[in-house]
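INFO batch 0412 | record 1 of 1 | parsing
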Amino acid sequence: MADVAQLAGVSSQTVSRVSNGDAAVVDSTRERVLAAMKELGYRPNSAARALKRGDFRAMGVITMGLSSTGNVRTLEAIASCAAREGYAVTLIPLDAPTQDNVKGAFTRLDELAVDAVALIMEVHLLDTASLTLPPHVKVVVVDSDSSGRFPVVDTDQRQGARTAVRHLLDLDHRTVWHVAGPKESFAAGHRAAAWEELLLQEGRTVPPLLRGDWTPDAGYEAGLRLADEPDCTAVFVANDQMALGVLRAMHESGRRVPEDVSVVGFDDIPDAGSFIPPLTTVRQDFARVGQLCVDAILRELRGETLMGTTLVPTDLVVRRSTARYAEASPQEG
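INFO prediction complete | emitting tokens
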């Protein structure tokens, strides 16, 4: 800094003011300082400036892992929105959603100096009263619940599930079977609850619930069981990956989709339109979830107190895996 000041013919304090973007510096002086910086290859120490200001321009993201489509796309959206706001993102993936792991992740992020943390936590953990988090860290939760302790941004899981089930009922199916996600999943719980509530509301039989782990293999196993159910004509699957497995099982079992069985997924992954047949599914707006998460973080950093849950609506994307139910005519004697 002293070398820059000497070359530009100014004081070190003026160099510091230019480095910090002080608008009070005269333009001609700023240009001389910037030219001297360029000539000498001087770069301001952003870490030192952050420590001085207490503003690191960095967000932490703690997520259960990167195998889930929803987690990856939400993370991508948060990172893109944060970058547009001039923030870097530090990622801490967890191999298991335990209280100790979450606390350890916060400790690690505290050492890495971030201004706030987004928690992508699809399991029921943050609504556990015994989990304590650092009081000085700004937190926004995605895809979970926090018992009112932190602001939450999430897809409207129940609305999406109701839309899927309503679509199948409107196609004259007598009832709808469901392949749910893992029992510990917050999103899977909301989707399954909405499925059951709508069937009961419409006076329809609620079939036994089948459960998977979000993978195509789990969907395939569930699909084989459903293919043996002669009364199964419509299936709502809790995500597109499991729906892919259901489609394969139906094909191998000789049950045609959609002529014999209609199938609806959830997520609208990029490949959903290339399934055979192209999958009708519920589209989540991950970009909007990421934007609202970053917006909430920035508002907290400005001193606003945020609470409650912000829900992002879904859309039903109708493709060729669903069709109107036509009851088979009795065989002529």
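INFO post-check: The two ends are 99 Å apart (CA to CA).
INFO record closed
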